[in-house]
Automatic annotation (TrEMBL):
<keyword id="KW-0732">Signal</keyword>
<feature type="signal peptide">
    <location>
        <begin position="1"/>
        <end position="17"/>
    </location>
</feature>
<protein>
    <submittedName>
        <fullName>Oxidoreductase</fullName>
    </submittedName>
</protein>
<dbReference type="InterPro" id="IPR036374">
    <property type="entry name" value="OxRdtase_Mopterin-bd_sf"/>
</dbReference>
Length: 170
């Protein structure tokens, strides 16, 4: 990581931490994730737009897990799904996640728990390219919890994630 990148990430982290919970800064880099629907916090007319630095500033965590799509155990770093949703004021309902290729899946907000899935942007300390399931992959810690090793959860592990629409519960 260059010194300039480190300074930028530090400043973005400070700016995000200083933002009142009722606002979200504008993305300075390429938008990686767009969240729409029933969210309390937005930075555009009808959405919360996140670049990489904004996602990192929410508090990145690393999970180590194997997957059915990769060989061996890898370290996936990203923002925990519960942290992202908490920041946006989402407490219940469903997430409709969409990938670059328009693959879409419904994920209950109840999946967003401490120690649960992360919106990963790095694998083994390197940014994920589109070719390697990036730039974002919602990945569950499969090795940490046998309940995550099911076809339903595998279907929710959406890679090349670009959009999430939030629909609150009844």
């Amino acid at each position: 990581m260059t010194l300039l990148t480190a300074v930028f990430l530090l400043l973005a982290s400070i700016a995000l931490a200083q933002e009142p919970r009722s606002s979200l800064p504008e993305p300075a880099g390429d938008v990686l994730l767009t969240v729409t629907g029933d969210i309390a916090i937005k930075n555009s007319e009808d959405a919360a737009l996140f670049d990489r630095a904004m996602l990192e500033a929410l508090g990145a965590e690393t999970i180590e897990t194997s997957t059915v799509w990769t060989d061996g155990v890898h370290a996936y770093t990203g923002v925990p799904l519960d942290t992202l949703l908490d920041h946006l004021g989402v407490e219940e309902g469903a997430l409709y996640a969409t990938a670059l290729n328009d693959y879409a899946v419904e994920i209950p907000v109840s999946d967003a728990i401490k120690g649960g899935p992360v919106v990963a942007f790095d694998v083994d300390s390197a940014p994920m390219s589109v070719r390697d399931k990036g730039p974002l992959w919602l990945i569950y810690p499969f090795d940490a919890n046998p309940d995550y090793r099911s076809e339903v959860i595998y279907s929710r592990s959406i890679w090349q994630l670009v959009r999430i629409e939030v629909e609150s519960g009844p």
